[in-house]
Amino acid sequence: MRIGFVIEHIGALGGTERAATAVLNGLAGHPGIGALHLLEVAPVGPPVFALDPRIERTAFSAHKVSLVRAWPRLVRWLRAQARRLRLDVVVVVEATHALYAVPALAGTAVRTIVWEHFNFRADMGRRKRRLGRRLAGWWAHDVVTLTRRDVALWQDGMRVRARLTAIPNIAPPARDTTYDTGTRLAVAVGRLVPQKGFDRLIPLWARVMRDPAARDWRLAIVGDGPDRAMLLGLIEAHGLVGRVTLVPATDDIDAVYRAAGLCCFPSRFEGFGMVLVEAASWGVPAVAFDCEAGPSDIILDGETGLLVPQDHEAAFEVAVLRMIGDDALRARMSAAARTDVARFSEAR
Prior knowledge:
This protein is α/β, with parallel strands linked by helices. It contains 12 helices and 13 strands. It has 2 domains: 2-166, Glycogen Phosphorylase B (Rossmann fold, 3-Layer(aba) Sandwich); 185-344, Glycogen Phosphorylase B (Rossmann fold), CATH 3.40.50.
């Protein structure tokens, strides 16, 4: 079988790029795969995550392009690539790219799979994403979501002819380490944008710090993005300089989890929540808002972490204080998370 993956680019530190790389690398070693191609719209450099050398990369443009203005050229390019590479299957990473990918492959023998990484209700106000989902749901052969909840959202939100399947992202293997109950570092990881909710985590952490049990704890928010200056202002305004730090995004994310005693996940919405399975693989228990899709598929509430109703900030504060005040609870949840993360292994 000859497979192509279509993606904006593979050169970022996001969960989408990490998940795509994991699947590509897993397929590269599969005996049933004759050829594996990565078709990037506009590469931004080498892959951040190691990519198997057997995967061939092809680019549409050396510069960022508008999917709307470049639509006719993208359709012709992808159709030509599918023919030139003799592809049997094309996996379209994110529904926005179905805008050109689905028309490009219409009428061919290529099986079209649209792999969506945002939940159905999260479109960021982009009409292109909504239209891409319409095309995918009606004209693609398959739509793959990351959670069962999202399958239900697709079914409730539109008429779907494509086969809907929920396949969670692949987790890193559980690490053979011992949880250090003496660790007093909480981490929150993600792009510095409103979606990730760091703007509400900082004031929340200020309230947590009023409790004597929290006096030795620190919070590190790891990531880059346009909200950096605003978040730095919040840290200063709440008197948290030295107690909350913004750490640049890193390709050594394992070092972040290795040093952590708690993961805070304040997202407003997600497609999955790759941070939670990464943390679990290191045995880092989490406190998470139970946003529309993702956290409840990953965290076993009360066993591997704590789920808090979305937008209930006071409850999130209580959950954090419960965690940091109970070393035995964190150790127990750490062991359970490390075991449970096998549900998301490549073998499954």
